[in-house]
Amino acid sequence: MLQTNTAGTSDYEQAIAEAKAAIIAKMTLSVGKDPGYATDRDWFVATALAARDRVTHRFLGGKRASKADGKKRVYYLSLEFLIGRQLTDVLYNFELYDIFRAALGDLGVDIERVREAEPDAALGNGGLGRLAACFMESMATLGIPAYGYGIRYDHGLFRQVIKDGWQQEFPETWLENGTPWEFLRSDVTYDIRFGGSVETKTVNNVPRFIWHPSEVVHAVAYDTPIVGWRGSNVNPLRLWSARAADPIALSLFNKGDHVGALSDQARSAAISKVLYPSDETAAGQELRLRQEYFFVSASLQDLINRHIRIYGDLYSLPDRAAIQLNDTHPAVAIAEMMRILLDDHNLRWDEAWRITSSTFSYTNHTLLPEALETWPLPLFERLLPRHLQIIYFINNLHLEATKKNFPNEPELLSSVSIIDERDGRRLRMGQLAFIGSHTINGVSALHTDLMKETTFRDLNRVYPGRIQNKTNGITFRRWLQQSNPGLTKLLCEVCGEEVLDKPELIKRLEEHADDPALQQRIAKIKRANKVVLCKIVTDRLGFRVEADSLFDVQIKRQHEYKRQLLNLLETVALYDAIRSNPTADWAPRVKIFAGKAAASYVAAKLIIKLANDIAKTVNNDPSVQGKLKVVFLPNYNVSLAEKIIPAADLSEQISTAGMEASGTGNMKLALNGALTIGTLDGANIEIKDNVGDDNIFIFGLTAAEVEERKRAGAPTATDNIAASPMLRQVLDAIGGGVFSPDDPNRFKPIIDGLRSQDRYMLTDDFDSYWAAQRRVDELWNQPEKWTRAAIVNIANMAWFSSDRTIAEYAEQIWKVPV
Ligand code: CRA
């Protein structure tokens, strides 16, 4: 029952009236506009500022409390935070969404349009960055005092435009008009030093190292509050922006060199200008190393200042701070922490090492060799001469100890050394992160096992017990409650409202899996979500797709190991098969693709072109009308994912086994009732264990079989192709220019690659993938059974909540109470 107050209005009406007044006040006094002339963006800013006021009180209250209670803090260091839009997230988590929607409605403004006026904060490439954003939200939800530390890129991940089927990249400009969510903390500014030389002095018989840098850049803090579920807690995401120490060289300016006077400014500001758009390949350039050290140094100075302010000295750091390295991108932090302790605080080596190695932990996100970060020694030395000395020292001690413990295995030393002596001398950041951390984790059960068997096998022998598994998770607030309100409402009805706080209660849904009434309701919700997506397809691509078709989606970064190409080969095979046997029981399908390729990744960009060329041919062929459509939705980002995921029927998770560390899109899709077609890779395995073998379509080689075949060198792609007439026909068609009559040789490199090397073993898995797709058709043609399987999927996904993942990190790695 709503309370009625003395003025005769209910609390709810009162709340709406207050929200309205707050929005109007922001519109006039902060945006400076008369509401009658406001644009959607103005409404967004006014609404966000009104919402932010509520957040800020909680934010400052929380900071005061955690300062006082001496709780251990978690510092999550990540070069990427792929946040997306924040308005709905903040309103929803603060349980203000309905109130603000009504308030805006009273003002004649549709909240949906306001929401869409917010640009995505795309400070990340893909899974790793999105995971960091989910983790920040879960840490706030669980009441863990945590700081996220990263870079405030002026330009996030590029905007993808598809022109004549080719990907084009355009700069992304989320900060063009500022963002209402952040607070500039100009008083929180640190000097970040680069280059120069190191002087050695002996003071009281102790050698001291004095770094004389040649360059200083300022790091300025911007805080964005991250709101936990039900507004329980608010934690800061602190992002650093680079500024020149001297904004302008006046002497040059006065001499008339106006451009030269600003060149230092430009060189410094370049550090936080743009996100590196590579995903799973090491960026390898000097600017990237500058970015890494820049945000690491600022973050460590900041957290050490805070610690000293509260606790007086640094000996207790490991008891009060846990620093998580999100991949090796911040691994230079190990050397920077040692430098601060040794050179700035005069600690002894042993003491400094104890503090460092009991404070840091490191998450590995990939075993792909091309993604493992290494730096040429000369480059590293030029930028960070003192850090290189420290790393040499760490390495010597580590190798000495290894020699002692494994006296008969000299070859072990080269594999566990931080320095790779093979291809020019290079620093291996994975080794550094491993050696300097108390715990190292993988992101799914299989990935963690493979870490122990492959890349980190020898380090795992030298430091046994350090590797743990922490299977990834996703925040249900964004990926279920906000993006799929229809399904959320049903879950609340069937499982009880408490399901919003206890995801394990979703399991109750399974009791009703056979109930035709529930099945119909689930199917209806899915259809409504599909209708929304149909409209997006029509708006963006200008053609229609049918909501009654099976929506078969593969949405993720474009990467050869993810095998979008395998899906395309099957699409062509299906296209051929439908045409030659039009009356068979094909499930009408819409194949939906979305994802960006790194700008320099030629092979992945050619596969995008292939998808678009196939789409053009198939969609214009009347003989498959109503049976097959192919859609490539441009500019995949968090906001588009929020629309595609609730509308998906089938989730493509078809990487070569052993190559996808975890995946998180797989979790989002299954939670929203899509059935997975996938290999036994990454977290697919754990999804299968949870939803059961009958409710997932598994195919292909296992990771062990992939390894075995690679070792044995047989059967080869040639054998595979010879054994599959269907595959042969598909390759001939694509290679022969059927989909590229304007340039018949366009896709020859792709086909030649498959015929010769087939590094990702598409030809090994093609037939079994085809067969799995036909099992999909068969189930789709029994709608009750399909929906039943979808219900069982939804009901069994609770374990994939990032709250569970974070609780495990907290208990088993960070040792902070939850
Ligand atoms: N590309 C993995 O490939 C994993 C995420 C988050 C990735 C995914 O399988 O789900 O990390 N790895 O753990 C990565 O970025 C540098 O490595 C990814 O997002």
From TrEMBL:
Post-translational modification N6-(pyridoxal phosphate)lysine, affected residues: K668
Cofactor(s) the protein needs: pyridoxal 5'-phosphate
The keyword Transferase is annotated on this UniProt entry: yes
Keywords attached to this entry: Allosteric enzyme, Carbohydrate metabolism, Cytoplasm, Glycosyltransferase, Pyridoxal phosphate, Transferase
Enzymatic class: transferase
EC number(s) given by UniProt: 2.4.1.1
One Pfam entry name: Phosphorylase
Compartment(s): Cytoplasm
InterPro entries in the record: Glycg_phsphrylas, Glyco_trans_35, Pyridoxal_P_attach_site
GO BP, sorted A to Z: glycogen catabolic process
Catalytic function, reaction form: [(1->4)-alpha-D-glucosyl](n) + phosphate = [(1->4)-alpha-D-glucosyl](n-1) + alpha-D-glucose 1-phosphate
SUPFAM superfamilies named among the record's database cross-references: UDP-Glycosyltransferase/glycogen phosphorylase
Keyword Transferase carried by entry: yes
GO molecular function: glycogen phosphorylase activity; pyridoxal phosphate binding
Any single Gene Ontology cellular-component annotation: cytoplasm
Family (UniProt): Belongs to the glycogen phosphorylase family.
Free-text function comment from the UniProt entry: Allosteric enzyme that catalyzes the rate-limiting step in glycogen catabolism, the phosphorolytic cleavage of glycogen to produce glucose-1-phosphate, and plays a central role in maintaining cellular and organismal glucose homeostasis.
Protein name, UniProt field: Alpha-1,4 glucan phosphorylase
Organism: Terrihabitans soli
Gene name of the encoded protein: glgP
